Amino acid sequence: MGPTEHHSEEAILNAAQIVFLRRGFYGTRMQEIADEAGINKALLHYYFRSKDKIFEAIFLGSLKNFLPQILEILDSDEPFEKKINTFFSNYIGLLLKNPHIPNFIMHEVAHNPERLQSFFKKSFEAIPKKFLKQIKDEIDAGRIEKQDPRHILVSLLSLAIFPFAAKPILQFGLNLTDEEFKQFIIERKKYLPEFVMKSLRKK
Amino acid sequence: MGPTEHHSEEAILNAAQIVFLRRGFYGTRMQEIADEAGINKALLHYYFRSKDKIFEAIFLGSLKNFLPQILEILDSDEPFEKKINTFFSNYIGLLLKNPHIPNFIMHEVAHNPERLQSFFKKSFEAIPKKFLKQIKDEIDAGRIEKQDPRHILVSLLSLAIFPFAAKPILQFGLNLTDEEFKQFIIERKKYLPEFVMKSLRKK
DNA sequence: GTCTATATAGGGATAGAC
DNA sequence: GTCTATCCCTATATAGAC
C-alpha cells in the first residue's frame, strides 16, 4: 500500500467538496468532479460507489466541521462576555475560510431533512445546554436582562452566519467589491460582540 | 380546477412556484410541475417554451415580492424607533406566509449571480439610502450610539431572515415541533425590536 | 388547448482492456 | 488503479392527433 493509492481518493474528495458547494447536489455533474480532480469519471465509481455516496461524505464532513464547532465554543467554560467575543471571532473567522458552507448546508438540509437527522442521531448532542444554562445564570445574577435564552442563541447565529449566506445580495445592495465585502465582515467581527452585549446588559 | 379551463397558465405558475421552492432549479422535474398543476407535461412547453423560462418567471416574481418590500419599509418616512418595529412586524409576517423564499433566493442567487444583476439593473433601486441617512441623522442627534449604519442594516436583515433559512437545523437543535417553531418566531417578532433598540440607544 | 407518443440528449453507472 | 467505450435510464423537448 503506497501513499499514491490514497492520492486519488483524496483528490476526489477535495474536488467533490469544491463542486458540490458550488453547484449543490442536483447541479453537480460527476464529469465536473472528475475534471476538477484531474482524473477519469469511472474512477469516481471505483472509489465511491455512487454520486450519492460521494455527496454523503462531503455533506457529513461539512456538518462535522461546522455544527460541533459552534457547540464547543458555546458550551465552553469561559465567562459569558468573553465567550460572546470568542464566538464571533472564531466562528466568523472559520466562515471567512469557508464562505459557501452556510448556503450549502441550509439548502441541502431544507431539501433533505433526513440526512440531518441521521447525523444528529449518531454524531453529537445538538443543543448547547451549558450555554443556555449559563444565560439563565446571568439573568438570575442580575447581570443581563430577563429574556428567553433561546432568542439570544438564535440571534448570535443569525448575526454571524446570515451575511455569508446572503453575500451576493448584500454585496450588490451595498455596492461593495469582493475585497470591500471581506473588510466589511472583518469589521463586523469586532462590531458584533459589543452590539450584542450592549443589548443584553442590565442597566 | 379542471384542465379544460384556460386557467392553465396560472395553474402552471402556481405549481411551478411550489415545486421550484421545494426542490430548487436542478431538483425540479417538469413532470412534478405538471402533476402539481393537474395538467400534462407537454402543456408546460406550450405556454412557456422551456424549463428555464418557467423558472425565470418564478424567480423574478420572488425577488419582486421580497426585496422591494424591505426597501419600502426601510425608506419610509416613519420615525426611527417606530420603523424598527414596523420592519420586524411586517417582514417577519410576510416571511411566515412564505417561509421558503429566503433559502430559494439565496441559493439561486449564489449559483447564478447574473440573474440578480439583470433584475437590479432594470427593476429597482437596491440601496435603502433614506434609511442609512436616517441612521446617520439619529447618530448626529445623539439619540443612538455612533456606528457604521450599514452594520445596523445587515443586523436587521440577519435577525429577521436567518431563522427561516436555517429552520430545519434550529428546529432540530431546539427540539421544537412545527407549531412550536412558529410560535417561537411569533415571539421573536415582538422580542427583536427591543433587542435592537436597547443596543442602539445612547445611554 | 390539451392530450399521447416519441425524439434526443445528458448523465450516472458498468464492462473490460491494460 | 486507471483508462476508454458503452449501456441505459431519465428528463427536456417536440410532433402530431383530436
Name its key features.
homodimer; 203 residues; Tetracycline Repressor, domain 2; 11 helices; 80% helix; globular; DNA-binding
CATH class value of the largest domain in chain A = Mainly Alpha
Largest sheet of chain A: none
> How many DSSP-defined strands of chain A?
0
Uncertain regions spanning at least 5 consecutive residues of chain A: none
How would you summarize the topology of this molecule?
Two copies of one chain form a homodimer.
Chain A lengths: L3 H24 L2 H8 L3 H7 L3 H24 L5 H18 L3 H11 L1 H11 L5 H12 L8 H17 L1 H8 L3 H23 L3
Helix pairs in contact in A: 1-2, 1-4, 1-6, 4-5, 5-9, 5-11, 6-7, 9-11
Chain B binds a DNA duplex (18 and 18 nucleotides) through α3.
Mind explaining what this structure looks like?
- 2 copies of one chain form a homodimer.
- Chain A is an all-alpha fold.
- The first copy, chain A, folds into 2 domains: 1-49, Arc Repressor Mutant, subunit A, CATH 1.10.10; 58-200, Orthogonal Bundle (Tetracycline Repressor, domain 2).
- The first copy, chain A, contains 11 helices and no strands.
- In chain A, helix 4 packs antiparallel against helix 5 (80-97).
- The radius of gyration of chain A is 20 Å and the shape is globular.
- Chain A starts with a helix and ends with a helix.
- The model of chain A has no long low-confidence stretch (mean pLDDT 94).
- At the A-B interface, helix 1, helix 6, helix 7, helix 9 and helix 10 of A face helix 1, helix 6, helix 7, helix 9 and helix 10 of B.
- Chain B binds a DNA duplex (18 and 18 nucleotides) through helix 3.
